Amino acid sequence: MRLLIVEDEPKTANYLRKGLSENRFIVDVAVDGEEGILLAESYQYDLIILDVMLPKMNGWSILSLLRNKNIMAPVLFLTARDSIEDRVLGLELGADDYLVKPFAFSELLARIRAILRRGQVSQTELLIIADLQVDLLRHKAQRGKDRFELTPKEFALLSLLARRKGEVVSRTIIAEQVWDMNFDSNTNVVDVAVRRLRSKVDDPFDKKLIHTIRGVGYVMEDRDAI
Amino acid sequence: MLFKQSSMAFRLACIYTVSAFSILMICALALYWIFTSRLEKENYRFLVNNIFILNKIIQEKANKSLIEVQEALKEEVILEPGFYHYYVRVLDGHNTTVIETPKMSALVPHERFAGLRPERLGVFPTKYWATYKNKTRKRHFLLIDALVSSPDHRKEGLWTIEIGMDISSERDIIIDYRQGLLIVLLLGTFCSALLGVVVTRKGLKPLRDMTRSTQQITIARLKERLNPASWPQELYTLAIAVNNMLDRIEDGFIRLSQFSGDLAHELRTPITNLMGEAEIALSRPRTNDEYREVLESSTEELGRIALMIENLLFLARAENPRAAVRFSNVAADQIIKEVCDFYGVLAEEKNIKLSYYGEANLKADVLMLRRAVSNLVSNALIHSRPQTEITLSVLPKDMTVIITVEDQGHGIPKEHLPHIFDRFYRVDWARSQNTGGTGLGLAIVKFIMDLHKGKVDIKSEVNRGTRVSLIFPSNYTQSV
Fold it and tell me: What sections of chain A are H helices per DSSP?
């Protein structure tokens, strides 16, 4: 997967490049709109990350120029400005998503993956991580031969983590996906819920599958397999 | 347009002058009319009287010779020059002069009467008068004539009496009078204009004083107020209104400066932590685990700052009058159920019973409503002891819908209640810092309710619990 980042702030560009490269993306960085358009014309990108406030040409103009040149790669906007009008303008111009600074890197990663996943319907009904099996169709989960007694929310949480196997899932995304709470709550509800899930899914077993990434979120993976 | 924009003093002076001018004008016209009509009446009486006398003399000499008639008329007609300024001519049926005042033909020739329509002696309507100006002699005359029976009824037709009255001096008087009136009018208007300017300047002095006093109130001296008692009635209310406005501005200003101070303070703590931790970590070589520890702690701290910024931006958006509130019909019971679901695990963990009841529909922004209720429940959970209950309810009442969150927690001391919805306000600083709150939760609740034109009611008793009610107004509610 090849990504283009158009960002003039060197620190931001640098950490984005580093973070995304480590997540197995090929990353190009352009420092302004002209260079960005030049690169977008030369290579086939799977996604373009555009900063709205750039010198010379802002993100919106770049987007309209790209679309005029028939470059249809999905675009994700990054911006420090957060007003409804900005959002609407970006989406009207054909942006695929919109992320307001400051954002967590895991959030960005999740959004990028969501955009790239679009259109590819996941056919899997059974998720398998080590000896864990999550049957999405029958709402059942088991490790080895032990079937778990899970509440619907616990199952939703487990399947979210399982579907995002290997990805760090932030508390915000968990709250949003499992409980439909679209804002950051300052309580540790998610932590408590994950702890409870762990007590059923991980605690009785030697091999732990749910890992805490402190300050970021949770990830489900088979660490022995890496 | 120009008049509307010009100064109030100018406008008042103008109005004053115009009305003074109008009054003077009306007076002058009235005086003039009274004076001239009075003169006219006198003249008319005089002329008619003379005609009667002449007629009487003629009729008395009926059937007498022409000489006798002339002799009889002589006394009335041949006047001493300069005594009476009038001239008489008597004509017989053939328009032959019987007798006339000397010099009359030169001053008032017979032809001048041709335009009049002589009637038989009777009523003399004023329109049968005429004025005549003898240009060569520069004299003005009032003319009247009358047809009378001849002394000899059968032989001759009607006789004519013509009188021309010299009204030159009278006209001079009238002209003088008119000029006098004009001068009085102009002088009076001028004086009243002058007076108007003086009066309005004096009258508007309090306004200037008030302007000066108001100008002295600056941001640095926002505490100062106008003293309403020192102004006249009309400005008294204005002064009170200005004072009230100043109260509101001062209040807002204090809040704003307090807010920016608080904001700086709120950011100071986490940034100090971040700086310190990073500095110490870098000051000497550390193990990988130690570095990790620092970075993890930093990420947590930064997450808290990001959350605070997100909340502040939400508040800033809510303050924007164009804030996009997407109203839809919401089943409030569904919302409280969702919130309870979300906090259920946490409540269980803390051994707190979380329950809800009631149902009602209302018109609200789903995301905001959920956020408001969620903030309240999260507060309740933070401030509750184990083995207590938190109850949510939603009930329609008197055209309103009330969502209540009631806990049996620590409660809030009375003195804090008025400030509880201020940003960054915390009842117990030390304890709240540990709970990781941003101090914005209730401010957000308040703003969400403002956007819904609703109210928040809070009742609390220390160590007994707190009850917060979100009251949605009638036009935002819907019958179930």
Answer: 10-22, 33-42, 59-68, 84-92, 105-117, 152-163, 171-179, 189-201
B366 contacts: CB under 8 Å, gap ≥ 6:
B326, B328, B330, B335
Looking at residue B61, what is its pLDDT?
78
In whole angstroms, what is the distance from residue A111 CA to residue A49 CA?
Answer: 11
- pLDDT value at B115 more than 70: no
ipTM: 0.73
**Which of B292, B313, B345, B379 should one mutate to test binding to chain A, selecting the residue with the greatest count of A CBs within 10 A?**
B345
Q: Is A216 on the interface with B (CB under 8 A)?
A: yes
| Residue partners of B383: CB distance under 8 A and separation at least 6 | B407, B409, B410, B411, B466
Q: Delimit the domains of chain A by residue range.
A: 2-122, 126-225
pLDDT tens digits for range B298-334:
888 888 888 888 888 777 766 665 566 778 888 889 9
The total of other beta-carbon atoms located within 10 Å of residue B82's CB is: 6
Closest Cα in chain B, distance from residue A102 (Å): 6
Amino acid symbol at B309: I
Q: How does DSSP assign B162-185, residue by residue?
A: EEEEE-HHHHHHHHHHHHHHHHHH
**Cβ proximity of B181 and B31 under 8 Å:** yes
Cβ–Cβ < 8 Å for B150, B139 = no
Q: Is residue B37 within 8 Å of residue B103, measured between CB atoms?
A: no
C-alpha distance from residue A225 to each of A131, A134, A202, A222, B320 (Å): 12, 18, 17, 6, 52
Whether residues B310 and A175 touch (CB distance < 8 A) is answered with: no
Nearest residue to A30 (alpha-carbon basis) of A61, A46, A54, A60: A54
More confident residue, B110 or A190: A190
Closest by alpha carbon to A201, among A149, A160, A163, A123? A149
A183 vs B374: CB contact, 8 Å cut-off? Answer: yes
∠ Cα A18 A20 A23 (to 5°)? 110
Statement: residue B373 has pLDDT above 90 = yes
pLDDT tens digit sequence for A44-61: 899 999 988 888 888 888
φ/ψ of residue B131, rounded to 5: -110, 155
Q: Does B316 touch chain A (CB under 8 A)?
A: no
- CB atoms under 10 Å from CB of B150, counted, come to 20
pLDDT at B305: 86
Q: Are B91 and B159 in contact (CB under 8 A)?
A: yes
Sheet holding A146-147, edge to edge: A126-129, A132-135, A140-143, A146-147
What pLDDT, on a 0 to 100 scale, did the predictor assign at position B126? Answer: 43
Q: Give bridge partners of residue B355 from the DSSP assignment.
A: B391
pLDDT digits (tens, 9 = 90+) for B77-102: 776 666 567 888 888 877 788 888 88
- Contact yes or no for A102 and B305 at CB 8 A: yes
At the top level of CATH, the class of A126-225 is: mainly alpha
CATH class belonging to A2-122: alpha beta
